[in-house]
Amino acid sequence: MPATVEVALWRGKADGRYQTFSVPLRENQTVLDVVTWVQRHADPTLAYRFACRVGMCGSCAMTVNGRPRWTCRTHISKVVEDGRVEIGPLANLPLIKDLACDMQAFFEKWQKAKGAFAPSKSRQDPIERISPATAPRIAADAAIECINCAVCYSACDTVRWNEDYLGPAALNRAWTLVNDVRDAGGRERLAALAANGGCHACHSHQSCQEHCPKALNPTASIAGLKRRTMQAYIRGEL
Ligand code: SF4
Ligand code: SF4
Ligand code: FES
Fold it and tell me: Residue 21: which pLDDT band, with cuts at 50, 70 and 90?
């Protein structure tokens, strides 16, 4: 690889433009390292978001050469094409400035999907033992490692054309709770998930699964929600 990489970064708001910087290459450098180099050495006004730098907080996602990615775990050597890389903000979210999006709608949809645990026991009750070998727990565990990065939300065409759609991350989270035997959200959550913009709006084209950096499969979780809400409807529970 050459000693520098040409980095085109989105600048300004939605009507902004790409600005190119020449950044020194280092061994094992990540996309986030490159963005950070620009902010520290070339233009301190560059706005972007990160926190943990180790793939846990989910705050560093950006669009890299047209594809949503977690930038702190993406090596620059993997994405450079002809000595150049283009880094923009995530799609499907309002842009605040440069590479920083407004995540409010994303997290409000988690609330609409009733993504908060609803306890069925009080603190006076003994702590319940849940076997990891039961089918509901296996289903919940398969979807539980989400870091709220919004990569799937940015990759989803249905989010793009249907502003009411709750999106793959919120629905994936809801699936973990639907399968949590300790949760008391029950019918109220299922009703929210079956409503307009809920699980039945998903077209199952699997962009979310293809792009998720944690190798989760929100499409499978949403398919489970479709079955579960349909069963509840047939039983007259919705
Ligand atoms: S499978 Fe559903 S949630 Fe995933 S990208 Fe496609 S429409 Fe969006
Ligand atoms: S499901 Fe995957 S891509 Fe979507 S927010 Fe969670 S970790 Fe990110
Ligand atoms: S900075 Fe936390 S996941 Fe990338």
Answer: very high
Atom number of ligand 2 nearest to Cα 58: 8
By most ligand atoms within 8 Å of CB, the mutation choice from 49, 59, 64 for ligand 3 is 59
Q: In this structure, are residues 20 and 8 in contact, taking their beta carbons and an 8 Å threshold?
A: yes
- 161-170 pLDDT, tens digit per residue, is 999 999 999 9
Answer for the pair 57, 147: CB distance below 8 angstroms, yes or no: yes
CB 125 within 8 A of CB 35: no
Beta-strand ranges (E) seen in 25-180 are 61-64, 67-70, 84-88, 95-97, 100-101
Q: Is the CB of 204 under 6 A from ligand 1?
A: yes
The CA distance from 36 to 28, in Å, is 14
Look at the alpha carbons of 29, 65, 217, 113 in this order and tell me if their dihedral is positive or negative.
Answer: positive
Phi-psi map region of 21: left, alpha, beta (phi>0 left; psi -120 to 50 alpha): beta
| Beta strands per DSSP E along the chain | 4-11, 17-24, 61-64, 67-70, 84-88, 95-97, 100-101
Substitution site in 57, 146, 148 for ligand 3 pocket (most atoms within 8 Å of beta carbon)? 57
β-partners of residue 4 are 24
